[in-house]
Amino acid sequence: MLGSPMSGTETPLWPAAIEAAEMIEPGMVVGLGTGRAAAMFVRALARRIEKGLEVKGVPTSRRTEELAKDLGVPLVGLEEIEAIDIGVDGADEVDPSLDLIKGHGGALLRERVVASISKTFVILAGDEKLVPRLGARMAVPVEVVPFAGPVSKRKLEALGGGVRLRMNGDGRPFVSDNGNHILDAKFESIEDASDLERRIDALPGVVDSGLFIGMAGLVLVQSESGFRRLSRP
Fold it and tell me: Whole-angstrom Cα distance, residue 158 to residue 183?
């Protein structure tokens, strides 16, 4: 099993995360994703900053913000910038076209905002995240306004999804950094991910979905033997 970066700074980093950090040049604004792979990138970037690299990061979650501050990564708010040079994040599924399912870490909305203004959007993923078709293993996270949750749930079910409200370990609904709930919608077969994305986004009460279509330009795929690059055709 590929190691987790959350158990301490002594945990070995993925070579793919180190490679992504090497892509960062002085003066860049960098999007900092959320989750296991993204945390490895933040740690790898922090190592370069310790050696003198001057950059600014934009975190996609409070969790990433805390990690970046702990590691000494300078941060900047969206009100202070117009664009992000490189955004680096993880993914829950990656299909052959480099379309993605994201959001099982609960930060899909902020991740999309950061990705949308990134000149280059790079994904770090273990090779187990590669799938022949989106939805093969994972549900599609859908962030919804709490008031509209029951309506959004019924309408997602009408689109063919098996829908569950995401819960915390204490039995209460998960609440995103934006104060919203997340519905996890499992579709048996996603024939047209772009069409499904549009249909979900049009539902009342939906803030965003975890379908990231046409956004990733490069995926660095980590395996036990090393990593390889996948570029959008």
Answer: 14
